[in-house]
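To illustrate the input format used throughout this study, we show a single complete record. The first block contains the structure-token representation of the backbone; no residue identities are included at this stage. The design step must infer an amino acid for every position from geometry alone.
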């Protein structure tokens, strides 16, 4: 009896194994019948601005129904073409990733149409401690002296201002490197930015009138914010820049009643009557003109 049960379980296991084998064979046969095409892919990482040679490429099977637009099927069609974006190993080489045919390699091949590349000198602080890498976006800030200070009693210090002059600027290269796959910070002496012609003029003027700083921003943040800049007096909340003494008549009643004020004669202002005698009282940092 026991032998009969064992034999039955053995036969059942054999039947299940046979069914699984048949199913697997059918699945493999079905997959092998899927139509595919040969597509040119990168056999190694290709940096932006590089000129393609056959050693950088290979072909791979790609399902016919999902071949990306602009793909190539012959490696010869890509001879001496220049990539304008980095292509990673195994990625399909597409027409939209390439500069126009006949373009020479180098940074000029990756500049967008209508844009310009401009290099500015930086240090480890201005260059965002080396974290401004190719492919990142930055804002450009200038610290300079205004031609004319604003506000009553504005001094030389009040003319100093920091202001953001450019926003969402693409970093094309740091030093002489344009590779975008390196996430390690690089402290360099120069950064190359992609700008419109108008922004190039702004940046050229800004670096001649003051010192520049780069402000790293999120790559997905494209919002621009208009600011008026900030002066030294605003930074330290210096009330003198906005005439804290105020109108004389509002202080006279309050200060004149305080004993112990230090008084000194001064010439009466034009607004006071000609026969009036005026005394300037200085107390607790306030100057008040009392006329009698």
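Output of the design step:
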């Amino acid at each position: 009896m026991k032998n009969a049960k064992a034999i039955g379980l053995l036969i059942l296991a054999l039947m299940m194994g046979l069914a699984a084998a048949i199913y697997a064979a059918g699945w493999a046969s079905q997959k092998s019948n899927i139509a595919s095409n040969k597509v040119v892919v990168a056999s190694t990482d290709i940096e932006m601005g590089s000129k393609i040679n056959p050693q950088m490429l290979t072909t791979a099977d790609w399902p016919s129904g999902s071949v990306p637009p602009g793909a190539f099927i012959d490696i010869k069609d890509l001879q001496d073409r220049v990539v304008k974006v980095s292509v990673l190993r195994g990625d399909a080489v597409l027409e939209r990733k390439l500069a126009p045919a006949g373009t020479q390699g180098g940074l000029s091949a990756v500049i967008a149409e209508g844009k310009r590349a401009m290099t500015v000198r930086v240090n480890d602080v201005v260059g965002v401690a080396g974290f401004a890498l190719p492919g990142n976006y930055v804002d450009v800030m200038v610290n300079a002296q205004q031609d004319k200070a604003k506000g009553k009693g504005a001094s030389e210090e009040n003319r100093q201002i920091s202001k953001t002059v450019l926003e969402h600027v693409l970093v094309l290269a740091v030093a002489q490197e344009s590779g975008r796959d390196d996430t390690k910070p690089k402290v360099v002496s120069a950064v190359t930015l992609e700008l419109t012609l108008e922004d190039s003029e702004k940046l050229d003027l800004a670096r001649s009138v003051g010192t520049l700083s780069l402000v790293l921003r999120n790559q997905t943040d494209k919002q621009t914010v208009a600011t008026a800049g900030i002066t030294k007096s605003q930074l330290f909340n210096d009330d003198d820049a906005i005439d804290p003494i105020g109108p004389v008549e509002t202080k006279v009643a309050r200060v004149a009643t305080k004993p112990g004020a230090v008084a000194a004669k001064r010439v009466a202002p034009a607004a006071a009557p000609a026969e009036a005698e005026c005394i300037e009282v200085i107390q607790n940092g306030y100057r008040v003109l009392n006329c009698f």
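Structural context for interpreting the output: Residues 241-270 have pLDDT under 50 and may be disordered. The longest strand covers residues 160-174.
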